Amino acid sequence: MAPRLDTFTQILTWGQLLAIPTVILRIWAAGIQRIYPFFTAYLVLDLGQILVLSNIRYSSRAYGYAYIYSEMLVVSLYVLVALELYSKVLAPLSGIVTLAQRYASGAICIAALASIGLLYFEPPGRNLVAQFLVFERVMIFSLVLFILFLVGFLTYFPVALSRNVIVYTTGYAVFFLAKAVSFFGRNTHVLSDALVDQIHMAVNNLCLLFWAVYLNRAGESTKMAIGHRTNPGDEQRVMRQLDAINRTLARLPRQK
Predict the structure, then answer these.
(1) Domains (range + CATH), the chain
(2) What phi and psi, each to the nearest 5 degrees, are found at residue 161?
(3) Phi-psi region of 191 (alpha: psi -120 to 50; beta: other; left: phi over 0)
(4) Residue 237: is its pLDDT beyond 70?
(5) Mean pLDDT score of the chain, rounded to an integer?
(6) What's the pLDDT at 32?
(7) How far lies 211's CA from each of 39, 88, 99, 204, in Å?
(8) CB within 8 A of 137, min separation 6: which ones?
(9) pLDDT tens digit sequence for 78-103
(10) Residue 156 pLDDT > 50, yes or no?
(11) How many CA atoms lie within 13 A of 163 on its CB side?
């Protein structure tokens, strides 16, 4: 059984090594790398991390330290990606985004506190890598709650956004959710390390394929919405309420 698992992991790794450059090239070909700089930076860093770690013996101490230091950079970009997502989602709503900027950090802190509550179910890490994985799970789950809030907002309020923003948001919602759940399963010893790694890579490959297919230059000008209602009257009423809130907030004096 072990050799087949190892072979499957290698296949997933090669899939990432092919998919990540494909998405990066698609972004550059579409000329949207400056529109989504943190997303692009994350992809470049993710590719670099895979190339570096693949040349270090997995069971060595050097691998553990290389993973921790590189993953710290990855987690930092996760936060920047989440903030980039929220700025793109709320971009058409200038009044709401002004208010949201004041409370975005607070929302992430609240999500972090909720995530920290799950530490009650997780045993303390046995070594430095295990302790870091607990910390990373807290961060990832916090970002999951933050991004799911954005998805919930888009589902209730059918705001018209560029197709690229919808694709970007949907892919990361799936990616973060899968990573947070599998991390929690590993930290509680429900899932093995090998299985968690395979889940991460499999979901990552699916998201990369999704982005490679749907992220393009035309997606910036194509408008679409996630949320919709069977009754057009209800949809118009909800959007009128959102527009009224946005106009009211836009008229409020900004605090310096």
Answers:
(1) 2-251 (1.20.1070)
(2) -125, 165
(3) beta
(4) no
(5) 78
(6) 93
(7) 11, 16, 30, 10
(8) 115, 118, 122, 180, 183, 184, 187
(9) 988 988 887 887 766 654 555 455 55
(10) yes
(11) 13
pTM above 0.70, yes or no: yes
* pLDDT for the residue numbered 171: 92
Tell me which long-range contacts 179-187 makes (C-beta under 8 A, separation of at least 24): 179/140, 179/203, 180/137, 180/140, 180/141, 180/144, 183/133, 183/136, 183/137, 183/140, 183/141, 184/118, 184/121, 184/122, 184/137, 184/141, 186/133, 187/122, 187/123, 187/130, 187/133, 187/134, 187/137
Nearest-10 Cα torsion for 175, 212, 86, 111:
10
Q: Write out the two tokens for 132.
A: 């870091």
Type of residue found at 27: I
- pLDDT given at position 202: 93
Q: At what angle do helices 232-251 and 94-116 cross, to 10 degrees?
A: 100
